């Protein structure tokens, strides 16, 4: 498991270095995720090599979001002033995200069925 952590953090850190070195407008951690995805797609890195640690991180995602959520308490006055606008935006963006996700999943399922020659 320690080796898996080193692989994931090493790839993430390389993304940070690349982002800083080339002054890219995207965060280094996102660049690291692109690198990880690329390595998985071209099969340089296998899912089995990082599966345990990835599942652990996904299972404990709540702890990763706690510090930013607590930091929001510093801006409680700003949040109170635009409460209804913020709630509206949260509901709207959630609906857009759910709709888009449903559309994409449906498209991929239909594409897979056409590719395999099966029908419902």
TrEMBL record:
Keyword flag Transferase: no
Keywords from the UniProt entry: Cell membrane, Membrane, Transmembrane, Transmembrane helix
One Pfam family hit: LrgA
Membrane-traversing stretches: 5-22, 28-45, 57-76, 82-109
Subcellular location: Cell membrane
Keyword Cytoplasm included in the entry's annotation: no
Membrane topology: Multi-pass membrane protein
InterPro entries according to UniProt: LrgA/CidA
Top-level lineage group: Bacteria
Protein name: CidA/LrgA family protein
Originating species: Candidatus Cetobacterium colombiensis
